[in-house]
Amino acid sequence: MQLLRLLVVALGIGWCVGAQAQPVAMVTDLVGKAQLQGDAKNPNVSILAEIDADRQVRLDKGAKLVAIYLKSGYEYSFGGPALVQFKSDAPVSLSGSAPQQRVPALTKDSQIRIKPVGMVQGALVMRSAPMGARLKLLGPNGSKVLEMSPLFRWRGIENVNSYQFELTDDTGRTLLETAVEGTTMKLPPQVVLKEGVSYTWEISARIADGRKYSSAGDFAVVAADLRARVELLRPKKDSPLSERVAFAAWLEQMELKEEARKYWKDIAAERPDDARIKELAAQ
After folding, report:
1. Is 5:35 a contact under the CB 8 Å cutoff?
2. ω before 188 within 30° of 0 (cis)?
3. What is the mean pLDDT of the chain?
4. Kind of pairing, strands 184-186 and 136-139?
5. CA dihedral over 272, 265, 47, 103, signed as positive or negative
6. pLDDT at 14 over 70
7. What mean pLDDT do residues 122-136 have?
8. Dihedrals φ, ψ of 128, to 5°?
């Protein structure tokens, strides 16, 4: 009985720790160096880093950090040197200047709540390529698209220039089957996609020794109301980088990975040392 009580207590403690270790904020911009206090394994903060409740972040002199609170949508800016504690509802300055608060244009919409990019799970499941697969789909794959004629991209096979492209709808009916030179493809005008319908595209190639390689992916065209909402919320080109990061994160949340990638590429050019942003831009 005593052992059972100890086990219950241990599980209770573990649950409490797990419940507390929930991100309350996400970094949307960083210039200079910032570190999580008490994290010897991964101390360096970067854009898209998730910050748990009560964690402390130290900013070096001259560093600038912007973070968005996931629940409220409020954005806070910090300048170093500073030591900041991220309370559950708002950050507190333990040393240095007080954080500056504002409400970004994106989260002025009460229905918008940003989630960390790592927590985004889509309804469309990205197909896993088999081990050793030589044809890798770059997009769209496991995502939704705004365009009625999206750009299909894949990583080709060395010394192979010609590929076979096939597009089918959710009933399995083939809409297009054609040979393609290169590693990109745009649909011809006669192929008209429908909103809300899931499509599958497959790319295949045969190499000199007769072996055939293929990969397939799924995507869907968003409904008109979501397309209009994206355009309404789209930040201007000269908007602060933090707003564009938050918007790209929201696009990921909406499964619009292809559209988000355009922003990640621009952001990566402005913050070339951020490995996570470079990774997202390259997908």
Report:
1. no
2. no
3. 86
4. unpaired
5. positive
6. no
7. 54
8. -90, 130
Mean pLDDT of the 15-32 span: 76
- Which are the contacts of 279, defined by CB distance < 8 A and separation ≥ 6? none
Please check whether residue 279 is in contact with residue 160, taking contact to mean a CB–CB distance below 8 angstroms: no
**252 CB-side CA count, 13 A:** 23
* Cα distance between residue 204 and residue 214, in whole Å: 4
CB 24 within 8 A of CB 253: no
Contact 48, 26 (CB under 8 A): yes
The sign of the CA dihedral 246, 249, 255, 257 is positive
Tell me the two tokens of residue 208: 């000199």
β-pairing verdict for 23-31 and 64-69 = antiparallel
Instruction: Give pLDDT tens digits for 80-102.
Output: 999 999 999 999 999 999 999 99
List strand residue ranges (DSSP E) for the chain, in order.
23-31, 34-36, 50-52, 55-59, 64-69, 75-79, 82-86, 91-95, 100-102, 136-139, 143-145, 151-155, 162-168, 174-181, 184-186, 198-206, 212-221
- Residue range 221-268, pLDDT digits in tens: 999 999 999 999 999 989 999 999 999 999 999 999 999 999 999 999
CB atoms < 10 A from the CB of 207, how many? Answer: 13
Q: Tokens standing for 113?
A: 């709540």
Structural element, H or E, at residue 231:
helix 224-233
Tokens of 29: 């911009």
**Among all chains, which residue has been given the structure tokens 């745009």?**
186
- For the entire predicted model, the pTM comes to 0.82
Residue with tokens 């309404």: 232
